[in-house]
């Protein structure tokens, strides 16, 4: 069979020199095989830290450094692109693109982003005037000819997660209603990571709420029968992804630092809701929102044992220093419900914004 000489040739090639093969098999045609060894990518990008923490209204620098093989030099056509990953990781939102002198920012990031540019190999992105919506994961992608590299960096915000439902009562919000409800209270729908961090900080809430990825969950630090069973361990209970239009739950909102002043308005008498709104306006302010109260309580240690109206028609008061008759067991924002707006029984919390 003709296969045998070929096999013998393959075996002999391990030990016999080319000249010996020529003598043994003069009828074979000469050929040469060139093997190319890949030494790995010549371009890569790295982030000095995987997570950057800032606050609303502040600035943040997302690190992205370019490493190149010594045989390469950056070309004028090298492209740097930053995108933001959606919470469900299904889409990427364009943030910033740069190639040579051409630079462009997109959407809500327009005019708020630029490259740090400390060196030609620095693709770090600076975001100014951070908003609540800027929270999330960002991808840095560098392309130079046939070489490319990517790295993902998380942007976290200092803040507070709070459970919320409107005057309509519990379990009345579909996902889009939940988004609007949080926005109306100077907040956004919280992510799972934010809720998980709040749970680690001892948040315990027995009502399920929407999260930004479309899932419905709730945090339990003290297992009990109505909340998943007393024989289960502490944790974040997960109902999974739900129909954003048809299913109705509460919502977990997230807010951060604000620019302005949150305060309890000293007034000679108790107020109805409409009187409370007017009193804040007369003081050059607006009636405060639920998110502003939570931010003042959690981030600034605001403490006041007077129940007051808020913009959504609820009555609450923030206690940072537990004491008798004022949340004796724990620091918390106390909730007195949604009373009749004509009741003249409460004070008011106001917020004066700062430009």
Task: Please provide a written account of the structure.
It comes from Eleginops maclovinus. Keywords: Disulfide bond, Extracellular matrix, Glycoprotein, Hyaluronic acid, Immunoglobulin domain, Repeat, Secreted, Signal. This is Hyaluronan and proteoglycan link protein 1. The chain has helices at 3-12, 18-24, 175-184, 192-200, 273-282, 290-300, and strands spanning 43-46, 51-54, 60-62, 65-68, 79-85, 92-99, 102-105, 113-115, 125-127, 136-144, 147-157, 159-164, 188-189, 209-210, 215-220, 235-241, 250-256, 260-264, 286-287, 308-309, 315-319, 332-335, 347-353. With 355 residues, the chain is of the alpha+beta class. It is elongated. It starts with a helix and ends with a strand.
Layout of SSEs?
Layout (H helix, E strand, L loop, with lengths): L2 H10 L5 H7 L18 E4 L4 E4 L5 E3 L2 E4 L10 E7 L6 E8 L2 E4 L7 E3 L9 E3 L8 E9 L2 E11 L1 E6 L10 H10 L3 E2 L2 H9 L8 E2 L4 E6 L14 E7 L8 E7 L3 E5 L8 H10 L3 E2 L2 H11 L7 E2 L5 E5 L12 E4 L11 E7 L2
Parallel strand pairs: 2-11, 14-17, 20-23
Antiparallel strand pairs: 1-4, 3-9, 5-6, 5-10, 6-7, 8-9, 10-11, 12-17, 13-17, 14-15, 15-16, 18-23, 19-23, 20-21, 21-22
Q: Which key phrases capture this entry?
A:
6-stranded mixed β-sheet; disordered N terminus; single chain; 355 residues; 32% strand
Describe the structure concisely:
Helix content is 16%, strand content 32%.
């Amino acid at each position: 069979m003709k296969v045998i000489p070929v096999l013998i040739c393959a075996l002999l090639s391990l030990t016999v020199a080319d000249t010996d093969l020529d003598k043994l098999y003069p009828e074979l045609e000469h050929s040469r095989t060139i093997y190319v060894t890949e030494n790995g990518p010549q371009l890569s990008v790295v982030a000095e830290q995987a997570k950057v923490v800032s606050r609303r209204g502040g600035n943040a620098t997302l690190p992205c450094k370019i490493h190149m093989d010594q045989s390469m030099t950056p070309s004028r056509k090298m492209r740097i692109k930053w995108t933001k990953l959606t919470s469900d990781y299904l889409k990427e939102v364009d943030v910033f693109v740069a190639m040579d002198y051409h630079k462009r920012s997109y959407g809500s990031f327009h005019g708020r982003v630029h490259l740090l540019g400390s060196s030609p190999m620095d693709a770090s992105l600076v975001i100014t005037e951070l908003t609540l919506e800027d929270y999330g994961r960002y991808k840095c992608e560098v392309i130079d000819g046939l070489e490319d590299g990517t790295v993902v960096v998380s942007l976290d915000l200092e803040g507070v997660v709070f459970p919320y439902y409107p005057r309509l009562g519990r379990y009345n919000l579909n996902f889009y209603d939940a988004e609007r409800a949080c926005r109306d209270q100077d907040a956004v729908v919280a992510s799972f990571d934010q809720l998980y961090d709040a749970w680690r900080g001892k948040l315990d809430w027995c009502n399920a709420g929407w999260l930004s990825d479309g899932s419905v969950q709730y945090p339990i630090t003290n297992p009990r029968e109505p909340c998943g069973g007393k024989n289960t361990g502490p944790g974040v209970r997960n109902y999974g992804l739900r129909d954003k239009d048809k299913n109705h739950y509460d919502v977990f909102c997230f807010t951060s630092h604000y620019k302005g002043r949150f305060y309890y308005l000293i007034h000679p008498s108790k107020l109805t809701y409409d009187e409370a709104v007017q009193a804040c306006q007369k003081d050059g302010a607006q009636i405060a929102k639920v998110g502003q109260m939570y931010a003042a309580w959690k981030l600034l240690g605001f403490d006041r044992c007077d129940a007051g109206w808020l913009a959504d028609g609820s009555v609450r008061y923030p206690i940072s220093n537990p004491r008798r008759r004022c949340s004796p067991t724990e620091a918390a924002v106390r909730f007195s419900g949604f009373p009749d707006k004509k009741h003249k029984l409460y004070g008011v919390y106001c917020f004066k914004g700062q430009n």
